[in-house]
User: Fold this.
Amino acid sequence: KYAAQTSVTYNAFISDEETEEPTNNALKVFSSYDGVPDICSYNGGTAYFSRTVNGSTTTVPLGVSATSDMTFTLTAQGAENFKAAVLDDRLTGLSYNLKTQAALEFDIEAGENKDRFFLNLEYDDTLQPTTDIDENATKNIIVVCNGQILNTISDIDDILSVQLTDMAGRKITRNVNARSDAWELNNFESGVYIAKVTTPSSTKTVKITVK
Assistant:
């Protein structure tokens, strides 16, 4: 069964300017299959498959493109990572809490349906950057990814763990407890991930691309 996806990922460490760079976002390529919908997010009229936002972004316009009138089911994953994630349907005037309603059914018309659905986000304080970590300590953590292997090195402390988060908010954590680690990414889907490296004294977060 065909299913289309779009993702919105929070990253506190990017600026408003960086959210427009291709490294943080993947443009949407529409399938145009007959009888199936295709979903994306919009920013400034540009359609995205994946979009990275920071705390200044509270509303994300969504588009659902269809070749004919149809009924489709929208499912949400990762909403629990936000303080609030609400989907507004401006055609009907209804709002849906994605933290409690993970699957929603809608009737849509043929076309892009660009001005109907809007994702409203609120960020929990725990998502914000911490202020009690020595920023200089993160300079002693080296993160290098060639697309297939994620190498992490710490000059001062042992690396406790490395966590990868995909654009849908799914997390996989690898326990390390060593000064260096090489994580083979052969079993990961290609795409952009957020890598978080944790030591006893600091945490470093970077974006990587798996090929």
